[in-house]
Each structure stands twice: as structure tokens, then as C-alpha cells.
């Protein structure tokens, strides 16, 4: 079974692409959702977060997202610290999930595949590429935030172009080229590669 990463910048449309793969019967691991779940349910991780950021990081046993994001948002070192706690747990969760799958290939959808080092556990990485203006527009609509807030988030991630250059395959999501035929072509290619093993 091939392990395939799916990544892209904010608002690139990687979740949309992931859903198309799911429609084709390919299991998808959503790293962002998984990390949120782990931060609420994994006792070991919860204790590490409390130790690093104080007991206010949790309210009634639930992650206090507002408090935590206020603490880390403008502090590069604190973001690094939080990521150093959450990423290993999420990567381990993904590997465990992959072992239970039987499809020819599986997809791990994650914004920070290269930043977290999880690309080392993957056979291929697909990048979803989108023009910056369109990505900003999508993120503003999806998260109900301002252009400045989207740009601030983008500044904290690896440059989208640099990320795309590291990928094995690229899907263009610019609302000019059709998305489904690109995913279908890549699906066929990945099935072919999986069959060779």
C-alpha cells in the first residue's frame, strides 16, 4: 500500500481535493481534525500541553482554543513548542491509522507535511496549487476572517511556491482548469504505482 501526502497553502483547496479522492474510495486521514481530537482526548498530550502552557489551556477538560491561540499566535518559539508536542502525536496517529487500511493507497491530508517532517513516512506528496488572491478569498469566506488575518496565517507557513517545488505531483486549483479530471488522472497513476509493489 502506498502512503500519499496531500498538502497546499491556506485556501488552496486541499480539502476539496481530498474529498474527491474519498469519493473514488480512497481513505483519507485529515491531520488537522486528528490533531484537534488528540489535543482533547490524548491524556499524555493534554498533560504536556498543560505543563508547557499552563492549566488555562483547558477548560472543563476541553481544549481552550482561544486561550492557546492567543498565547502562541505572535510568538514563534511558542508555536514551535506547541508543534513539537502535537506533531509527533499526530504523525503516530496517522501511521497507526494507515496500518489498518486495505486500499491500494491512502492519503494523509495535512497543511504541514514538510514542516513537521512527516513527508519521511510517505511514498509521494501531492501539492494543491492555487493563485494567492484566490487562496486569500477562499480562506476569508471559509473562516469568516479578514484579508490581514489570512495573510498573517500565510506568513507563518512555508511559502506556497517552495512547498509545491518539494511535491512529487501537483494539482492546479485555479478555477480555470477542471479539478476532477486532474484528480482522476492522478488516481489512475497512483493505482498503477501501487500495483507494482
Structure description:
- Strand 3 (58-59) and strand 4 form a beta hairpin.
- This protein has two domains: 1-27 and 105-192, P-loop containing nucleotide triphosphate hydrolases (Rossmann fold); 34-100, no CATH class.
- The longest helix has 24 residues, at 76-99.
- Helix 2 (31-41) crosses helix 3 (43-53).
- It has helices spanning 14-23, 31-41, 43-53, 65-72, 76-99, 113-116, 132-143, 147-155, 160-166, 179-195; strands at residues 2-8, 28-30, 58-59, 62-63, 105-109, 124-129, 169-172.
- It contains ten helices and seven strands.
- With 197 residues, it is α/β, with parallel strands linked by helices.
- The strands form two sheets. Strands 2-5-1-6-7 form a five-stranded parallel sheet, with helices on both faces. Strands 3-4 form a two-stranded antiparallel sheet.
- The protein is globular, with a radius of gyration of 17 Å.
- Its EC number is 2.7.1.24.
- Belongs to the CoaE family.
Amino acid at each position: 500500500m502506498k502512503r500519499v501526502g496531500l498538502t497546499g497553502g491556506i485556501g488552496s483547496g486541499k480539502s476539496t481535493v481530498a474529498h474527491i479522492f474519498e469519493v473514488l474510495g480512497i481513505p483519507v486521514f485529515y491531520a488537522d481534525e486528528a490533531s484537534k481530537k488528540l489535543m482533547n482526548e490524548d491524556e499524555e498530550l493534554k498533560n504536556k500541553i498543560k505543563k508547557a502552557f499552563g492549566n488555562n489551556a483547558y477548560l472543563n477538560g476541553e481544549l481552550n482554543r482561544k486561550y492557546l491561540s492567543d498565547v502562541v499566535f505572535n510568538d514563534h518559539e511558542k508555536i514551535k513548542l506547541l508543534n513539537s508536542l502535537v506533531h509527533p502525536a499526530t504523525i503516530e496517529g496517522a501511521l497507526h491509522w494507515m496500518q489498518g487500511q486495505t486500499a491500494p493507497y491512502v492519503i494523509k491530508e495535512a497543511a504541514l507535511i514538510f514542516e513537521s517532517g512527516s513527508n519521511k513516512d510517505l511514498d509521494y506528496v501531492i501539492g494543491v496549487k492555487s493563485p494567492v488572491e484566490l487562496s486569500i478569498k477562499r480562506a476569508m469566506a471559509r473562516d469568516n476572517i479578514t484579508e490581514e488575518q489570512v495573510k498573517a496565517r500565510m506568513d507563518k507557513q512555508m511559502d506556497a511556491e517552495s512547498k509545491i517545488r518539494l511535491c512529487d505531483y501537483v494539482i492546479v486549483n485555479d478555477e480555470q482548469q477542471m479539478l476532477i479530471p486532474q484528480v482522476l488522472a492522478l488516481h489512475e497513476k497512483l493505482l498503477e504505482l501501487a500495483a507494482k509493489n
